[in-house]
Amino acid sequence: MPATHHTKMLILGSGPAGLSAAIYAARAGMRPIVVQGIQPGGQLTITTDVENYPGFAEVIQGPWLMEQMTAQATHVGTAMIWDTIVDVDLSQRPFRITGDGGDVYVAETLVIATGAQAKWLGVPGEQELGGKGVSACATCDGFFYRGKKVVVIGGGNTAVEEALYLTNHSDDVTLIHRRDSLRSEKILQDRLFANPKIRTLWNKKVERFVAGDGVSGLVGVDLVDTVTGEPSFEPTDGGFVAIGHSPSTELFKGKLPLDADGYLQVTPGTSLTSIPGVFAAGDVTDKIYRQAVTAAGMGCMAALDAERFLAEAEYHAMVDA
Length: 321
Fold this sequence. Notes:
The radius of gyration is 22 Å and the shape is elongated. The protein has helices at 16-27, 62-75, 138-141, 157-166, 186-194, 292-320, and strands spanning 4-12, 33-35, 49-50, 60-61, 79-81, 85-89, 95-99, 104-112, 116-118, 134-135, 149-153, 172-176, 198-201, 204-211, 218-225, 231-235, 238-241, 245-247, 278-280. It is an alpha/beta fold. α1 packs parallel to α2 (62-75), α1 runs parallel beside α6 and α4 (157-166) packs parallel to α5 (186-194).
């Protein structure tokens, strides 16, 4: 039978942003509920080695880190519910959120931490070699390719920024683009073309990520010329897909302001959305940094913003009574 859950804070998403919000809210006695969504733990659950999260001298595993965050949130009083949200009613407080099984969540505040998903090419070898040479985040994984040959696939700001970043670790960076000109901002293009560590392959489409024999990972990419149709092979140790991200904001279209790329808009320097009592944190609103540590920090901000909001609401209710 469908159930109705009441809470001072409902958190949608169980990545670093959602779980950090839960930890702070639970410690403040708000007894938050986290709806875990279709990918409990967020993108870190499909990330193997994590070397840039503060507090760990040795490499840790993404799934393990999320297990620890989940255990901490639960330990301090968070209720974790495995559900997928299909409808949100933000027209009045308390907000009413509905899960796909019919459960209803009645929440005095809502933290949206549904994250974003990297866009992938959808070609053979991409999924199989994820974490074994194929990545969608140079900032996260570039360190593992020190002194090695890497390729970046894409032609927008993300691709150019990733290629430039990778020159901190590699002297052999190749940008592969399916057209004969880039879509990125001119200032980024100028930096790219001026960097001697980067070369560009124009009019090339990735057909396959190629694995080596035995247990080895990525060894190269099969390409096809988009003008002539001529096939070619580009050897590489690392392949970075940089064709953008898709924020998980479908539920909020027409209900909350989104920017041109679909990210939730918040008041700068806060987690506040346009609806009082609704807050956003992590990659669902952050298109610039997209790191676990920044998402966690934004989750903390959302919990503190929500706590202040409720304190003010309770004060006004008491004064007006």
